[in-house]
Amino acid sequence: MRETRGTDRALPPGPRISGLAALRAFRRDPIGLLSQAATFGDVAYLRLPRFPAYLLNHPDLVHDVLVTGSQGFMKGPTMQAAKLVLGESLLTSEGEYHRRQRRLIQPIFHHDRIAGYGAAMVEHAARRCDRWHAGQTIDVHREMAELTLSVVGATLFGTDVETAEARSVGEALTLQLSMFGRVFSPLFQLSMRLPLPSNRRFERSKAALDAVIDRMIAERRSSGAAGEDVMSLLIRAQEDGAGMSDAQVRHEAMTLFLAGHETTSNALTWTWYLLSQHPQVEAKLHAELDEVLGSRPPTVTDVPRLRLTEMVLTESMRILPPAWAIGRRALADHHADAYVIPAGSVVIVSPYLVHHDPRWYEDPETFVPERWTDEERARRPRYAYLPFGAGPRMCVGEHFARMEGVLILATMAQRWRLRLVPGHPVELQPVITLRPKHGMAMTAERRG
User: Fold this and answer.
1) pLDDT-wise least confident of 78-82, 104-108, 270-274
2) Range of the domain at 81
3) Which of 386, 388, 387 shows the shortest CA–CA distance to 62?
4) Phi/psi at 26 (nearest 5 deg)?
5) What is the pLDDT of residue 179?
6) What is the pTM of this model?
7) Domain for residue 4, yes or no?
8) How many helices (H) and strands (E) does the chain have?
9) CATH number, residue 87
10) How far apart are CA 281 and CA 255, in angstroms?
11) Please, how many CA atoms are within 13 Å of residue 141, restricted to the half-sphere of its CB?
12) 203, 209 contact by CB (below 8 A)
């Protein structure tokens, strides 16, 4: 661990552009702007209109902010804005309230409990790709979004989210996510109060999402919440005799809907894209599936044996991490290398940049799943890979998401190859998650 005790209150170096120019660049191409800032060093300054921002781009500095110094920070402006959608939830709350909610929710994602969800994950994946036919062109991003929404509905909420409802919920989530690009605008708070068409659409979509969750809560309450689905467990969760109100259950359920659906669907979409561009890797994946599974569907007990499948997913999340940036606001002065980051400043950690740093990954733009053997992992700093964050606010559903990704990929790749439609534009859309801007048009080819 290198010495990071800062003494210099001068600003770190960074792009020499005005605050408004930085804002335009951040809204147009945030990854490009952060990449430019990273060329100035592991601590770089970004002049944004509402928030002085500091980019930290070294695993040791990441560790200091997200792990050992985590209590000196609160969530950044994007997650604060997320309260408009998610309320006071595990993702957005702070302090003792956050710690209490995490204690209540953590047991829901215990390894033994989530292992029971595997059969439903495989069933829904098989049902989804049974609808495809050879030569069909599909939007893989939409397919994965609808699939992961149905998996979340079945495994976490014990409900069957029909295709029409899944599509409407998915569209509502997309609209909710689209507003986060406005967070850094100096007029954000004012603009959200104006009777703009975009704000009316936002409110309608929020109402639609709330209605879905409220219906689930009412169904569980009426039946005594005796089931083992997450909604029932949230309703039953107690600490010192106190449980959650319906509003708290709704906020946590909305967070799990968003996090459990959005991030995994993007991870799978990018994985299909990368496999289509690397047929040699795809052939190795198919060979593993044939050897381990033959023609039978995968089960949870197969997951440890599907080593390459897991490494493919891990490498995909390195190159194109769904959670591409993590923001924090400093509650007190923070020391980073030779610099002092003043209280109130925004600190940005970008998994995308860390994952593409040649100091930790040789030829970082290349898709190489074999980077993730045990020997290769041991050679890197621990916080050179953080698709699920790090520290006490690390994603509570990491093991659920990894198991889901492996089982869905194995189930579908047993049967199908997906080929990118020639000429289809593949462009990153970094909103709160890293999405494909134009969807992902691919042609289905049946294996065998």
Assistant:
1) 78-82
2) 19-446
3) 386
4) -65, -40
5) 61
6) 0.90
7) no
8) 20, 12
9) 1.10.630.10
10) 34
11) 21
12) no
